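Suppose a colleague, Dr. K., hands you the sequence of a protein chain of 254 amino acids and asks what its three-dimensional shape might be. Before reaching for any lab equipment, you can write down a predicted structure in token form. Begin with the sequence itself:
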Amino acid sequence: MSFDDEALLRYSRHVLLPEIGIAGQTRFAGSTVLIVGAGGLGCPVALYLGASGVGRLIVADGDVVDLTNLQRQIGHATAAVGVNKARSLAASIGAINPTVAVTLLENRLEDESLRAAVASCDLVVDASDNFATRHAINRACTAAGKPLVSGAAIGFSGQVAVFDTRLETSPCYHCLFPELAGEPEMRCAESGVFSPLVGLVGAMQAAEALKVLAGVGEPLTGRLLLWDGLRADARVLRVPRDPDCLVCAQRQAG
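The predicted structure, expressed as tokens, is then:
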């Protein structure tokens, strides 16, 4: 892919980075990323990936913008209250970078629709807010061999990890958080969330996604980054692959 003068100017600060350069920017332009969730995490993820020139973004969310979202979901304006979140966020992406193709999925992805969306992309960013969706996304990504960038934020605490089961030694999300029936959920509506926290976690998810797409640096594959916003303290833990993981076993069988 060749870039015209305007594109070279737009992405010049990436091109100046020897780790990215024209080759990395070309990879971004030729990539498709699925972002599941257009809320607190999905907003910064989508805006940074769009600004960075990822060629196609698939944004999926069946919810609508609510007044309580505006404290942290920076991709939505007050005028978007009542509008589907994926549609609102797509407009914000287009305002920053109209050259990015945005596909809207204005519904909750489940079963076949989730598998089809995962199959159509190069990388998935999980910006959802519940365990059931996270596990469903993980199963779809593991089965399809697509890298998954996972993030979560609640209160003042956040976490980011990369699961790339194209690599033999990489764990999947289920290796780290086995799926348990009736596991308790912590929601922002009940527990609250510090506004800048979702921006920090979402920005880190975007950074990890770009690193994987460009093949640069050391992504958080097999590692879990934990961020304590009250203490401004970060820890990175090693996450081994679980040899008894049922999800990984299904991938091997396939």
